[in-house]
């Protein structure tokens, strides 16, 4: 049939246009790959049957006609389970499609399953899933990152050419970097949150995994744009994000390198070297580099910690055993039913975050924690906006080291949370960021970097990222054995 496992969306579309393959053949190809490899990787919580996948997608055509993708399990697909990898939502079937899903189906995309994730998107390793571990295809003894680890691992192993994740504090960019693929965290309000099960509503965005920047722009073009069902949307019309992808950088591009991020405590020398090499590629293409600190970044992880827990405590209050899913049936009173359902239904990490969230919001503490966090958040946004008066985009690491081993942070969860330093500022400020592979470690593990831009700078980020991928071939490296 002449498809290779790491074929891009662009190449698949060419083959479809030339009638060299059909969408049924493409689907079969990927379903077989899941069968062959996902036993060891564990990226999917469920792969749907072939007929139902085809039936739910536009059979006439569309911008992503016949292109299979995997969906993070916190995005609602009508008549499919949406569990957020939590026991409390076990077997809960979505009654409607998220707006992003509606648009993907209309575009003819084939939605083939549900991706594993950290429970309610809380984590950086996909280890908090109530159901299974997801292994990093580059080294099965390591995590794929998180919380969208299942989506990232599937794309990295060539089990699917694209996948959706979600970002509240780095959950697309970080796993993209650890799995050696491209991850986009769009501007807040660019993709509708309708049907994305909330973690921290003011921070949440759906994000996209692909192997190339071009493919990423293809998928965004289908989903982006205004939606009356989400009041926080930017009023942006639909557009084609591939339009400017001509392989060259915009003239006189000014890149800011965030020095306190690049040289933050704990960033491994291999990461610094890979990013310095990347900067050379950009200067070679005519960009100018300005090294600059962003002091408020040093408060990002603490600010995110408070804000995200506060919003999570409120968002997750609705899961009480009455309206959805799991219920503790042994409880003898209504009060006990609520508390025992929540105790048994939520995992430890989620319970801990709900406790912390209620604490930082409680009378007497809100002033000290939540209100201060909101002030720092505003300061941070102002500092980023000032930076964008001087430079067009910023470059920084995504994660201080390549993928880590399972249980690496079992005794020190706070250390794992501190690594959100590199990503969560983009959620707190709402601005856009794209993560791209830029190297391999001594152990042949992927290294990524991120390009960050102001609100609604996706076209610019794609243009810069695509130009980089025309000059380099880091994105063509793949894990061995698939
Ligand atoms: N590491 C972050 C957290 O645990 C990631 C959250 C996210 O983006 N969903 O909160």
Structure description:
The protein is globular. Helix 4 links the parallel strand 2 (68-72) and strand 3. It has a domain at 9-246 and 460-476: Amidase signature (AS) enzymes (Alpha-Beta Complex). The protein contains 16 helices and 11 strands. The model has no long low-confidence stretch (mean pLDDT 97). Helix 7 runs antiparallel to helix 16 and helix 10 crosses helix 13 (370-390). By secondary structure, the chain is α/β, with parallel strands linked by helices. It has an 11-stranded mixed β-sheet, with helices on both faces. The chain has helices at 9-17, 23-41, 50-55, 99-106, 149-156, 173-179, 213-223, 259-262, 269-284, 300-315, 334-345, 348-361, 370-390, 413-418, 424-429, 458-471; strands at residues 44-47, 68-72, 110-115, 162-167, 182-185, 205-210, 254-258, 288-292, 393-397, 432-440, 446-453. Helix content is 37%, strand content 13%. The structure holds glutamine (GLN). Glutamine (GLN) binds next to loops. Glutamine is lined by residues 121-124, 147, 167-171, 199, 308, 420.
């Amino acid at each position: 049939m002449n498809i290779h496992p790491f074929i891009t969306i662009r190449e698949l579309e060419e083959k479809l246009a030339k009638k060299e393959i059909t969408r049924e053949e493409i689907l079969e190809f990927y379903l077989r790959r899941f069968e062959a490899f996902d036993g060891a990787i564990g990226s999917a919580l469920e792969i749907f049957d072939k007929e139902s996948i085809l039936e739910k997608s536009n059979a006439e055509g569309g911008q992503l006609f016949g292109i299979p993708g995997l969906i993070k399990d916190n995005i609602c697909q009508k008549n499919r389970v949406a569990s957020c990898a939590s026991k409390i939502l076990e077997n809960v079937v979505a009654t409607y499609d998220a707006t992003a899903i509606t648009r993907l189906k209309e575009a003819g995309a084939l939605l083939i399953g549900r991706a594993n994730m950290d429970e309610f998107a809380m984590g950086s390793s996909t280890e908090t899933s109530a159901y299974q571990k997801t292994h990093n295809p580059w080294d099965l003894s390591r995590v794929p990152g998180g919380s969208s680890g299942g989506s990232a691992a599937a794309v990295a192993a060539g089990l699917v050419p694209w996948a959706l994740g979600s970002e509240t504090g780095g959950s697309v960019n970080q796993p993209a970097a650890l799995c050696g693929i491209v991850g986009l965290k769009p501007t807040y309000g660019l993709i509708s949150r309708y049907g994305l099960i909330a973690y921290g509503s003011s921070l949440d965005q759906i994000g996209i995994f692909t192997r190339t920047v071009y493919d990423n722009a293809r998928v965004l073009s289908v989903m982006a744009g205004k939606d009356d069902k989400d009041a926080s949307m930017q009023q942006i019309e639909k557009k084609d994000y591939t339009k400017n992808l001509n392989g060259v950088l915009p003239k006189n591009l000014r890149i800011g390198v965030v020095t306190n991020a690049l040289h933050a405590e704990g960033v491994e020398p291999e990461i610094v070297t890979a990013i310095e090499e990347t900067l050379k590629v950009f200067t070679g293409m005519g960009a100018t580099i300005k090294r600059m600190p962003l002091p408020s970044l040093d408060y990002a992880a603490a600010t995110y910690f408070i804000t995200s827990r506060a919003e999570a405590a409120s968002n997750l209050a609705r899961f009480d055993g009455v309206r959805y899913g799991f219920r503790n049936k042994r409880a003898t009173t209504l009060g006990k039913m609520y508390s025992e359902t929540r105790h048994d239904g939520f995992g430890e990490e989620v319970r801990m975050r709900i406790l912390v969230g209620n604490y930082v919001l409680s009378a007497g503490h809100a002033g000290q924690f939540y209100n201060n966090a909101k002030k720092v958040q505003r300061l941070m946004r102002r500092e980023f906006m000032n930076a964008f008066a001087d430079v067009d985009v910023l470059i920084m690491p995504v994660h201080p080291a390549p993928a880590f081993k399972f249980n690496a942070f079992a005794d020190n969860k706070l250390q794992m949370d501190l690594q959100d330093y590199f990503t969560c500022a983009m959620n707190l400020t709402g601005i856009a960021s794209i993560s791209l592979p830029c190297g391999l470690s001594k152990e042949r593990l992927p290294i990524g970097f991120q390009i960050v831009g102001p609100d609604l700078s996706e076209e610019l980020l794609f243009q810069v990222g695509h130009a980089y991928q025309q000059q380099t071939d880091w994105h063509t490296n793949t894990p061995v054995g698939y």
